[in-house]
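Quick question, first post here. What does this chain look like in 3D?
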Amino acid sequence: MVDDDSDVIRRKKEAQRQRRLEPGEEDKLLRSAEPHLQALIVAALETCGRQGELLTLQWGDVSLARGEIILRAEHTKDRENRIIPVSSRFRKVLEMRRDNPAGVPFPSSAYVFGDAIGQRVGNVRRAWQTAVLRAHGHTPAWIWKKKTGPNDKGSTRLSPESEAAYRAINLHFHDLRHEGGSRLLEAGWPVHYVQHILGHASLQQTST
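> Answer (accepted):
Ran it through. Tokens below.
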């Protein structure tokens, strides 16, 4: 019951945000992002995938021949496989990332949006916050957060000033997913199709 309630809360929060990219904001983000994040931004806009779904995507679930990727149920929020078509823009990203630094194609077990050797990347929080701030004319400042326990290795976080600027901009990585879905609807794609792409449980959620 707790898990079900938590999922409902997460879905409500997801539906409540309606942040869209402003004109020119996408270009500014891409110019401010490092290459790995650039690729991930394009992927999120083109596939409407969640950050976790994209970071766990492996090459074995990519078929450039069929022009599709599979987001596996074990990594999706709705616990169902989703087959996503590969747009021409997304294809270019995949083709650029297909080979390792030695020019050899990654094995099927390697992660598409992994590091230079195909190992999984946990999250892109710092890279994202840095790109968002730079895209909006801010130079991010980071401070060291001390250890709070024996198992805590410590971490860095935005300074209070940078955190305030980031909150004011109010752009989350997850908003790229909503932006991608909105663009599909605006391009005339049927709402049922967009519902599948997003992995929504209801048409109402997609319409919102």
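Confidence is low (pLDDT under 50) at residues 1-12.
The radius of gyration is 18 Å.
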